[in-house]
Design goal:
Strand 9 and strand 10 form a beta hairpin. It is globular, with a radius of gyration of 23 Å. The chain is an alpha+beta fold. Helices cover 30% and strands 22% of the residues. InterPro entries: Peptide/Ni-bd, SBP_5, SBP_5_dom.
């Protein structure tokens, strides 16, 4: 059955919004340089995971409102409407709904949270979820097996972003009793727990979607208090929370326009927690010694290439010529004063999945040769590059244009101020040659985002890259039973990535959820989200 165009556009828009939000973008008052002394990026300066010195807090203190200077606003608390990541309002959703599973960032494994247990069959095609006894939604109704199945069906029917992952794989869900759900999959899926740690695992109460208007009713530590769009969202403590009454009275989310403003608020105490992605600001925050969780993602700074017929990128020689000409280090020097994590590898040296397979490399002579061959066959060498209008995006546009033109391309800039317009042009209208973005491949589940950006049928693949060999490698990655097998498949993906150049990678990114020394009990989880049910503020 073909999906309706409206459904496709909505899924594409959700995926696109995440890509735009996680591309290390900055606001007009932030750093960025287009000239002056160039600096080389320091490598090995970060330790990922829990960092900074968190003083012993002693006995938890009850009361108070925790102020979170978040990265982006969750315009809706519906998990089917908001892409649940730390960069797109996911922490607010997690506060309202909790998650069935949680990613333990220290142990590198998924552990039960709202769930009591999750067991897999030997072939990873059948997963049995057991729920905790006595868990209730904030409206007093039980969070049971029927509610879980109903919520996930509702999520898919309303085209939540991860429907693109679930629909092809989830054959059926059965409630064998009130506390047990059996998921039967069409394919082996070793990291299926990730789905239950993200938006599909944010279980909404049946009453939430029973009426014409969605109501945010979950089993999380907080409930919606008030919401003033573009100003603040306040969540009140759920006194009947399954882990016990929260220590905090409330959570207050605001969305400062720049990461620099968030760091300043954290420094002066007007914010208790801040989420930052801009490389220069993250670097300053880490050096300042703020406690928090530093998260690494691959493909955090990339150039999306339109592979469609009639576009320059349809020619492999053109794609490879671009990749051989674009220097990640120079891009980082000009845009972020050398504070990023430049590189062509899908997984950088800091990653647990770093491959021994070398990336394509920079070779201007070979780039010129490939471009000359394409021109001999009729290509005129013209490219249009799309990016934003803020100072850093302009800096990236200028250096990208210069690097491509030094090998013979003629580059026209298409700088679009609205993220919504960039989203539409890239993911819905496909009106671009090359465009800046990000895939933000996580350390916890590399399959998720690689499947989205490289699979031939994925709505999250705006360049329409298609290769049956890559599709097959992604199937193998999905079913990889252990880290050794996962690494082998990722090595093969890097090899094919070098050969095919589906997109051009310019580096990884580091995101930092930092908090004050008097803030305790924040629990990091998947997709750089945080859980606040046990958080408290010391005196």
């Amino acid at each position: 059955m073909k999906r309706a165009p409206r459904a496709r556009a909505r899924l594409a828009a959700a995926l696109a919004a995440a890509a735009m939000l996680t591309s290390a973008c900055v606001s007009p008052d932030e750093g960025g340089s287009t000239g002056g002394e160039q600096q080389k990026a320091e490598r090995g300066r970060y330790t990922f995971g829990a960092i900074g010195k968190q003083p012993t807090g002693g006995k938890p203190v009850r009361g108070g409102t925790l102020h979170f200077a978040d990265y982006a606003e969750a315009r809706s608390l519906s998990p089917a409407a908001t892409y649940a990541t730390g960069a797109s309002g996911g922490s607010a959703l997690a506060a309202v709904y909790d998650v069935l599973m949680r990613y333990d960032t220290a142990a590198h494994t998924y552990v039960p949270w709202l769930a009591k247990s999750l067991r897999s069959s030997e072939d990873a095609k059948t997963w049995t979820l057991t729920l905790r006894d006595g868990v209730e939604f904030s409206d007093g109704t039980p969070l049971d097996a029927k509610a879980v199945i109903g919520s996930i069906k509702w999520y898919q029917e309303n085209k939540g972003a991860d429907t693109t992952m679930l629909a092809p794989n989830l054959a059926k869900m059965d409630a064998t009793d009130d506390s047990t759900v059996v998921f039967t999959l069409r394919n082996s899926w070793a990291t299926f727990p990730a789905m239950l740690a993200q938006a599909p695992g944010m279980i909404v109460a049946p009453a939430a979607y029973a009426g014409k208007k969605f109501e945010p009713i979950g089993a999380g530590a907080f409930t919606l208090g008030s919401y003033k769009p573009q100003e603040e969202m306040v969540l009140k403590a759920n006194k009947n929370y399954w882990k016990g009454e929260p220590h905090l009275d409330a959570l207050r989310f605001t969305w400062p326009q720049s990461d620099r403003a968030k760091l300043e608020a954290l420094d002066d105490g007007t914010a208790d927690v801040a989420y930052m992605r801009s490389p220069d600001v993250v670097d300053d925050a880490v050096k300042a010694g703020h406690p928090g969780e530093l998260t690494l993602t691959g493909l955090g700074n990339m150039v999306v290439v339109n592979n469609r017929e009639g576009r320059p990128g349809a020619d492999l020689r053109v794609r490879k010529a671009m990749a051989l000409a674009l220097d990640p280090a120079l891009d980082t020097e000009r845009a972020y004063d050398g504070k990023g994590l430049p590189g062509q590898e899908i997984f950088p040296p800091e990653s647990r999945w770093h491959s021994d397979v070398k990336p394509l490399g920079i070779d201007l002579d070979q780039s010129k040769k490939l471009l000359a061959e394409a021109k001999k066959d009729g290509y005129d060498g013209t490219l249009t590059y799309m990016d934003g209008t803020d100072p850093v995006s302009r800096a990236k546009a200028v250096v990208t244009k210069a690097m491509l033109e030094r090998v013979g391309f003629k580059v026209e800039l298409d700088l679009v101020s609205s993220i919504a317009d960039r989203t539409a042009k890239t993911y819905v209208e496909h009106d671009f040659d090359i465009s800046r973005g990000a895939a933000s491949v996580s350390e916890s589940d590399p399959y998720h985002r690689l499947q989205s950006v490289l699979n031939s049928k994925s709505y999250g693949n705006p360049g329409a890259y298609a290769n049956p060999k890559m599709d097959q490698l992604l199937v193998e990655l999905q079913g990889a039973a252990d880290e050794t097998q996962t690494q082998r498949v990722l090595d093969d993906i890097q090899t094919l990535f070098n050969e095919d150049v589906p997109l051009i990678n310019l580096g990884a990114s580091a995101a930092f959820t930092a908090w004050g020394e008097n803030v305790h009990g924040i629990v990091p989880t998947d997709e750089y989200m945080a859980l606040f049910g046990e958080a408290w503020i010391g005196k």
